[in-house]
Design goal:
Layout (H helix, E strand, L loop, with lengths): L2 E18 L5 E20 L4 E5 L13 H13 L5 E6 L10 H17 L5 H11 L3 H6 L2 E5 L4 E4 L6 E6 L7 H12 L11 H9 L2 H7 L1 E2 L2 H7 L3 H10 L4 E4 L6 E5 L2 H14 L5 E6 L5 E2 L1
Parallel strand pairs: 1-8, 3-4
Antiparallel strand pairs: 1-2, 1-12, 2-4, 2-5, 5-6, 7-10, 7-11, 9-10
Helix pairs in contact: 1-2, 2-3, 5-8, 6-7
The structure holds 4-diphosphocytidyl-2-C-methyl-D-erythritol and adenosine-5'-triphosphate.
């Protein structure tokens, strides 16, 4: 018997970042949108914990106990006093180290898959608690849709979305480390007053209406200057997408994936093609959102 869970990537339509806290984390107002690029995690009983991974970026994924899928299985088994004897196979389509929460997605998917396989019967609250222990983005990977994350980004409130938004994602030739981008944010912020992070009412209204033009006018990412400082070539990708007619162009989360909001599916295909021939990025993908979070298939 095995259990497969499908789990989406995310884009941050707003990422407001506060000053560094004493614990090193930053308070956020993080508006997440789940988009239709998916990993699948399959859990099968095994003699011991084992991780395998397939997909274009599989070579960059750790297969030891640092993998977020492994950490999820260990965390759940630890709470029940059982051994995490499971084979977790990750079919990976979400870019690795791309700012689209790929590792977090696998953590949430593995947790749900193991809970189902082992019949551990964790409540939604317990699953969310374990997700928050695994990482700031992991709870959102479980719930999907659209949500505002505060605190480290792990305390979620679901958001209404009045339509489907069409996106293009441009992958970069190399990854960016999330902690390094937050450190660069701190360096760039030195000597400045950092306001409390708050969600933009206009952005929340644009999401609720499903209005792509209004959303394009309000998207923002406080980590973007830091990501561009560490990876200046991303400015060329953003410009290429804007020139191709994207309504908005921004770095996704901590980057280096860049995200382009378009009016409809046809416009998304046109912007994607222009980015492919621009020579400013790696693979280009089209995806719409919101979509559901981690789901047992
Ligand atoms: C950039 C985002 O992807 C936006 O959604 C997230 O804030 C990052 O979430 P994540 O990858 O799940 O991050 P975590 O595994 O919790 O933390 C990794 C590192 O990122 C930094 N970090 C993360 C979240 C946060 N609110 N403040 C931080 O400063 C810290 O250096 C932390 O050690
Ligand atoms: N299941 C996993 N898939 C991918 N990377 C993983 C996984 N587990 C651990 N990692 C490690 O996490 C690092 C970041 O990968 P990930 O794909 O989660 O980045 P990200 O999409 O930028 O994350 P986020 O958007 O949450 O900041 C990788 O370089 C890898 O070493």
């Amino acid at each position: 018997m095995s259990v497969t869970v499908r789990v989406p990537a995310k884009v941050n339509v707003q990422l407001a970042v506060g000053a560094a806290r004493p614990d090193g984390f930053h308070d956020l107002a993080n508006v997440f949108l789940a988009v239709g690029l998916y990993d699948e995690v399959t859990a099968t009983p095994a003699a011991e914990l084992r991780i395998t991974c397939e997909g274009p970026d599989a070579g960059q994924v750790p297969l030891d106990r640092t993998n977020l899928a492994a950490r999820a299985a260990i965390a759940l088994a630890g709470r029940r006093g059982i051994e995490p004897d499971v084979h977790l196979h990750i079919a990976k389509d979400i870019p690795v180290a791309g700012g689209m929460a790929g590792g977090s997605a696998d953590g949430a998917a593995a947790l749900l898959a193991c809970d189902t396989l082992w019949g551990t019967g964790a409540s939604r609250e317990e699953l969310l608690e374990i997700c928050a222990e695994l990482g700031s983005d992991v709870p959102f990977s479980l719930v999907g849709g659209a949500a505002l994350g505060v605190g480290r980004g792990e305390r979620l409130t679901a958001l209404e979305v009045g339509g489907t938004f069409h996106w293009v994602f441009a992958m970069a030739g190399r990854g960016l480390s999330t902690p390094a981008v937050f450190r660069e944010f701190d360096r760039l912020a030195e000597g400045r007053d950092i306001p409390e992070p708050v969600a933009s009412p206009d952005l929340l209204a644009a999401l609720a209406k499903g209005d792509a033009d209004a959303l394009a006018a309000t998207v923002s990412n406080d980590l973007q200057p830091a990501a561009l400082s560490l990876f200046p070539e991303l400015a060329d990708t953003l410009a290429a997408g804007r020139d191709a007619g994207a309504l908005a162009a921004l770095v996704s989360g901590s980057g280096p994936t860049t995200a382009f909001l378009t009016r409809d599916a046809g416009a998304a295909e046109m912007v994607a093609e222009a980015l492919r021939v621009s020579g400013t990025c790696g693979a280009v993908r089209v995806a719409a959102g919101p979509v559901a979070g981690a789901t047992v298939l």
